[in-house]
């Protein structure tokens, strides 16, 4: 019997939900590892809806669970129903939805509030000593909840390749150890069973992002 891995989504689309390529890569790599993905999302309204052509917010309202169901091909459950006892690991892909719908990081940075449901789930897996995989912006959730943990969002020096490197500095201010890693690499915090990789925090070819997520997934399944 393969490992059962909870995948928590935050909507559908990079600017207001889960990053679709990252979410898809997680599913593909879990399948390759013989693991079963069980997809969840909170049943809440998105912070806002962004027109992905114009990059501008619209007046629409959308629900995080309903939008996430697009990526999950309809096979999804309300995050409130997640029971850590029947699961072996947790993975949260990136995308601005993590910083807008799962937390208030997008507007408040290190002073953000994590959604209670999301925080409870992360703490439950951590307390059960079950591995947690985080990519792109989602390591900020662990930075806020688990002070002193080790994480990577890629590099901590901003440049054309690493346009979001200031995130690493903010995570350090929360008391975390940030470890610089290339996009195809992961960092494993053995003590906290946290596996992180930078994904689209890096301006890299999509196959490199895909490969980095693959290493993250492989480590999560190995630790489960």
Automatic annotation (TrEMBL):
It comes from the Eukaryota. SUPFAM superfamilies: Class I glutamine amidotransferase-like. It comes from Ciccaba nigrolineata. The gene is Gatd3a_0. This is GAL3A protein. InterPro entries: Class_I_gatase-like. NCBIfam families: PRK11780.1.
């Amino acid at each position: 019997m393969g490992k059962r891995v909870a995948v928590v989504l935050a909507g559908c689309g990079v600017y207001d939900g889960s990053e679709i390529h990252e979410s898809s890569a997680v599913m593909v790599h879990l399948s390759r590892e013989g693991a079963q993905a069980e997809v969840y999302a909170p049943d809440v309204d998105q912070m806002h809806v962004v027109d992905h052509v114009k990059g501008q917010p619209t007046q629409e309202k959308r629900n995080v669970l309903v939008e996430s169901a697009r990526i999950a091909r309809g096979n999804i459950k309300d995050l409130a129903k997640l029971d850590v006892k029947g699961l072996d690991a947790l993975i949260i892909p990136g995308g601005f939805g993590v910083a807008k719908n799962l937390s208030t990081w997008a507007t408040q940075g290190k002073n953000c509030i994590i959604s209670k449901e999301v925080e409870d789930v992360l703490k439950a897996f951590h307390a059960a000593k079950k591995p947690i995989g985080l990519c792109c912006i989602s390591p900020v959730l662990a930075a806020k909840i688990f002070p002193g943990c080790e994480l990577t969002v890629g590099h901590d020096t901003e440049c054309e390749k690493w346009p979001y490197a200031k995130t690493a500095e903010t995570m350090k201010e929360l008391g975390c150890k940030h470890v610089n890693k290339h996009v195809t690499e992961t960092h494993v915090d053995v003590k906290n069973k946290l596996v992180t990789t930078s994904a689209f925090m890096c301006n890299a070819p999509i196959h490199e992002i895909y490969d980095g997520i693959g290493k993250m997934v492989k480590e999560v399944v190995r630790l489960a």
